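Lecture 7, part 2: worked example. A protein chain together with flavin-adenine dinucleotide.
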Amino acid sequence: MTKVIYTSHQNQLLDGAAFMRNGSQYVDALRDGRQVFIEGERVEDVTTHPAFRGAVRSIAHLYDVACDEQHRDTMTTVFPDTGERVNVSYLIPRSQEDLARRRRGLRLWAEQTYGLMGRTPDHVAGFLSGFAAAPDVFARADKDFADNVVRFHRFAAREDIYAAYTIVPPQIDRSKPAHQQADPHLYAGVKEERDGGIVIKGAQMLGTGAALADWIHLSSIVPLRPGDEDYAISVMVPASAPGVKIFPRRSYAHAATSDYDYPLATRFDETDSLVVYDDVFVPWENVFVYRDLDLVQAQWWQTPAWLLGNNQAQVRLSTKLDFLTGVAKQVAAMNGVDKLPPVQGTLGELAAHATMVNGLLLAAEYNCRIDDDGVAWPGAAETFASTALAPEMYGKLLTVVRDLCGGGLIQLPSSVEDFDNPEIAEQIERYVQSPGHPARDRVRLLKLAWDLVGSEFASRHHQYEMFYAGAPFVVKMRMFQNYDFDHATTLADSALEYDDADDRAPALGVS
Ligand SMILES: Cc1cc2nc3c(=O)[nH]c(=O)nc-3n(C[C@H](O)[C@H](O)[C@H](O)COP(=O)(O)OP(=O)(O)OC[C@H]3O[C@@H](n4cnc5c(N)ncnc54)[C@H](O)[C@@H]3O)c2cc1C
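Predicted complex, written out as structure tokens:
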């Protein structure tokens, strides 16, 4: 097997075969002078700041896992034309088996974070791979955008980059199109052309992971109207580019009192940011779409980009539902109720949802479409079905787990420090325990469950599952557009084929 020997942060290996970076290389690259502001202050170093360091460590761990020789077959793929070995998330799938290979790698990554980090590097990698899989779409523009998407994909894979994205304008006044907002530079858009590129001004929401990423993809997925051309762009921007300012929401990791009390928030709070592009220069080579209302939409729907990116999202959701089900089962067992038939039925309901989401993933592979260029697109109806059901399903499942856990989620010591106070520790150890689960173990499991279903971190996850793929009504509309209604309505019509003469339904199976 190839021994992984890094020569520089450029990730090039001595044998020239593999282009993977490890966790410490990722962390080093974040010390780049990026402008991140939180709680009224500029963050000097996201890798050490308490709001971000836990999430940085988790992402670094993912890179280490991908570099680990034992995961080489799962986590890497080889570009057929160059023989370069890269992260599997940059694979352009060409068969059902390629999609399965990709899923196995994404799943291994998702399990490292229990599906609780949505925008790990494999998410936008799926979009970049989808763009590069369909250069003809970008070739419709009279510039070199087709070359740009192919070159950037190759660059991103070779450098093993982590890209976040901001593709939705900030909520200011949704009743007006972009160009009719009170100021033309509220939504991020083109301010001017300069030698060698364009200047962007304005803001975009809601860059999950933007503070932790190397690059940010800036574009628009919301439909734009004539007059909005300046906002119809798709560009790649380094997170540390002059003028990029990242404003994360309140950090749940920073607010957490200890790892023991908030075992998930402290490790997996990827943060979501308003990203301001304050006169940011983008060279032409990093532009994929420029002032083109049709192309800015086509990039999502006429390439496999949206499906590949959201296939990753479904792998992550599937992992998260298995985790949720596992935590619920352990709490029920600890409370001594897991043998009761109604409780088993409730656990079965959780398991049914987890199985359904995983089943849709497998069905999306089975029903993949191979396009004229030989690229495999995951099944659209299956992918949209999962995203359309998730917003309501996730909230319902949180309620199911809360129901199973009862007041035990709340009847907990205020913090791990209570165990260190001899005046109360004995009482806690006496009254907060279950057979086979001394107090510290019982509390550890229930604090985990609370951080999963009830804490501020958990509540953000609920909002995430409702909105990360777009507002629920939009996602359901996409499901409407991608379901085979012809087949369904033909079935419905066939049931109406009565013989008008006697109003009797035809006897089935009798000619
Ligand atoms: C936790 C989290 C993480 C996110 N991460 C990212 C990210 O990494 N990158 C990114 O680009 N975006 C991200 N988003 C943003 C996400 O894409 C948007 O929230 C989503 O597209 C919906 O847009 P909106 O929030 O502006 O809601 P709106 O479009 O304002 O809709 C809000 C609600 O208003 C109502 N409504 C609005 N318009 C209509 C209409 N025409 N008809 C009927 N009802 C309507 C609906 O009830 C709708 O749910 C994230 C969001 C969340 C919550």
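The longest strand covers residues 197-208. The pocket of flavin-adenine dinucleotide is lined by residues 119, 165-168, 171, 174, 205-208, 272, 460, 463-464, 467-468, 470-473 (CB under 6 Å). Keep this in mind for problem set question 3.
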